[in-house]
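Friendly challenge for the regulars: who can give me the structure tokens for this chain first? No prize, just bragging rights.
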Amino acid sequence: MDRFHAMQAFVRVVETGSFTKAAATLHLSRTTVTQLVQQLEARLRVQLLHRTTRKVNVTADGAAYYEQVVRLLAGLEALESGLPGAATAPRGTLRVDVPSPLATLVLMPALPAFHARYPDIELELGASDRKVDPIGDGVDCVVRGGAVTDNALKARRLADLRLGVYAAPAYLARAGVPAHPDELADRRHRIIAYRWSTPDGHAPYAMRRGGEEARVHGRYAVRTDDGNAYLAAGLAGLGVLWLPDYMARPHAASGALLPLFAGWDVDPMPLYVAYPATRHVSRRLRVFIDWIVELLGEPGPVTAARQ
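First reply, four minutes later:
Bragging rights claimed.
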């Protein structure tokens, strides 16, 4: 038995809660991962995991062993990277999930510079707006807009996304140009709703002008949980939408979208990178987080200055 690989397999099963998910993230077969954990249990003469048809739960002995193994693996990595003659460049596979528009418009164009700096990191980039569980899905980190409320995650604030309100000319010709955000509650108007992870599925948009505040709860023509589909619905003239500047800019420049409510400010959207609080932060994850902070963390075409 390769004890190192067996410990790695055990840690990933605990973190994902599944032999199948652990196997996928380790690029091994489920049978191999199962055998590695079984061999580890046989060597220790302790049951580390409770297995059922639906879920894998760690035992009390397994939880204690997990904490020790995580520290051990972290120490091994630190030892290897700290040796004077060792290759210190971070390497290995890094699994990241980011919103699809951010991946397409911001990260992908910038990735050549990242890989020039860290050529030995293999990046598996999930581009989706679905709610990804970094622990259960075996992802090293996620980048998401909105507050991070899960206590099992550590989060680092990257930026505040500038937002604006837009609509297609065809929509405005049909419904009229609203002069005040409250007019979006009228029957003639529709919004494009984004499905947030909230009880009602979408969040109100706070807008401010001087000491006045408006929160829009308009009726929606369509609601989606994908940023690219959200933008497409607005371009098709289905309603009013709230967009980060980096998504709206080319369409506003071409006239495909028109800005609304001059003089009003939309509260910026915080952007975070989040990762499991209990998992060791590898060097490859650390340098990726530092890089994305460098990419997004300063006021510029994507982000707003902090208030």
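Residues 8 and 73 are 8 Å apart (CA to CA). The first helix runs from residue 3 to 16. Your move, everyone else.
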